[in-house]
Design a protein that fits this description.
By secondary structure, this protein is of the alpha+beta class. The protein contains three helices and ten strands, in the order αββαβββββαβββ.
């Protein structure tokens, strides 16, 4: 009886240790965006959106986002950035990635998702931050109209900065609408260790 009790105690301790190790290995990449309005901290969903998270992290490491602007801000919807510099020149990107919107993550307030064209698998560098739960952007089926927009991260600090973007006056710039009249610049994007 005593041997059984000792065995059960050892088993439960080793199980707790194993659970702690597993939990600790589930690390998420963290990114800091220093913008002209303040700092935004982001946690990437490396496990549920591996291609999208790796794609975003690669652009961050390349310094691609440094000096880009949030070029489309629609209050009550989203703030989009990552494609244009302060002269409104579109930056050259890497190849498009596979749409991972079928990963179960939802376009909820504070989440980041990949922007794309009408081609479901056309996302490159542009992303957006949801101002509210935008369930109509979620994946419903693997069809052109049902693919949705792949969520790959979430704002963990600085949502007040994102909200302040929506208070900036916007207008048209060339063919683009909802462009902030004063540039909202990503001064630096960096991976946090």
């Amino acid at each position: 009886m005593r041997a059984t009790l000792v065995y059960l105690m050892l088993f439960s301790i080793s199980t707790l240790s194993f659970a702690t190790e597993n939990k600790m290995s589930n690390t998420h990449t963290k990114v800091k965006l220093t913008t002209s309005l303040g700092t935004i901290a982001i946690q990437l969903e490396d496990e549920k959106a591996p291609a999208s998270a790796a794609n975003f992290a690669a652009y961050v490491k390349q310094g691609f986002y440094d000096g880009t602007i949030f070029h489309r801000v629609i209050p009550g919807f989203m703030a989009q950035g990552g494609g244009f510099d302060t002269s409104f020149n579109q930056k050259t990107t890497n190849a498009p990635i596979k749409n991972e919107a079928d990963n179960g993550l939802k376009n909820k307030r504070g989440t980041l998702a990949m922007a794309r064209t009408s081609d479901p698998h056309s996302a490159t560098a542009q992303f957006f931050i949801n101002y509210k739960d935008n369930s109509f952007l979620d994946h419903t089926s693997p069809t052109p109209s049902g693919w949705g927009y792949a969520v790959f991260g979430e704002v963990t600090e600085g949502m007040d900065i994102v909200d302040s973007m929506a208070k900036q006056p916007t207008g048209n710039r060339g063919m683009h609408q909802d462009v902030p009249k004063t540039d909202i610049v990503i001064e630096k994007a960096e991976i946090l260790e």
